[in-house]
Write a structure and sequence with these properties.
By secondary structure, this protein is mainly α. The chain contains five helices and two strands. The termini are far apart.
Length: 187
């Protein structure tokens, strides 16, 4: 499911690694560095906000595994496609539930695309629109005002907002009364 693919764990270390790789001439990179630079990482250990590694209850490192590589130190077409796909999915769910939450999305970005300011405004506008539809947790981040000078924290916030919208939809839809009455025997 697209919601499970959302990325909320970018760190300064990812950005620094991307900068480090970008400073190496292609011909001077090892094959592993070229693959990481071009394709991103498939599996990665998770760290908390202080940079300490996270472990599961058995003491094993928490690893984000996936079939989709992620270039976490840069924001590119893969991020745009993932977020736009999640926006389309959530918008459709909300409209089906009767909410005015239709969004215009573009989920076919390619590597050579350079989004215009108007496309970025639509992109952020979609996030703000979905965030405003339902009452969300007090911990839900605010929508970034712009994509200009996007930080890794703001990139995480965008995708966290979408996760929180999905969780609110799940809570709402699982609380519906299916029998058509609140108490048995009601007339």
């Amino acid at each position: 499911m697209i919601i499970d693919e959302l990325v909320i764990w970018r760190t300064a270390a990812h950005v620094q690694r991307r900068i480090q790789l970008g400073s190496i001439a292609w011909q001077d990179m090892t094959p592993a560095e070229q693959d990481e630079f071009y394709n991103g990482v498939y599996d990665e250990q998770l760290f908390d906000v202080t940079g300490e590694p996270l472990f599961d209850i058995s003491g094993e490192p928490l690893i984000v595994a996936g079939n989709t590589p992620r270039r976490l130190g840069a924001y590119d077409y893969a991020d745009l496609n993932r977020v736009e796909s999640a926006v389309a999915y959530l918008s459709t769910l909300l409209v089906t539930l009767g909410y005015d939450a239709s969004c215009v999305t573009k989920a076919d970005w390619v590597e050579s695309d350079i989004p215009t300011p108007a496309e970025y405004a639509r992109y952020i506008g979609n996030i703000a629109r979905l965030r405003a539809v339902l009452e969300l947790s007090a911990t839900t981040p605010t929508t970034p005002a712009t994509m200009r000078y996007l930080t890794y924290g703001a990139a995480n916030d965008i995708e966290q907002i979408l996760r929180d919208v999905y969780q609110a939809i799940r809570r709402m839809t699982t609380s519906f009364f299916y029998s058509g009455e609140i108490y048995a025997g009601e007339v």
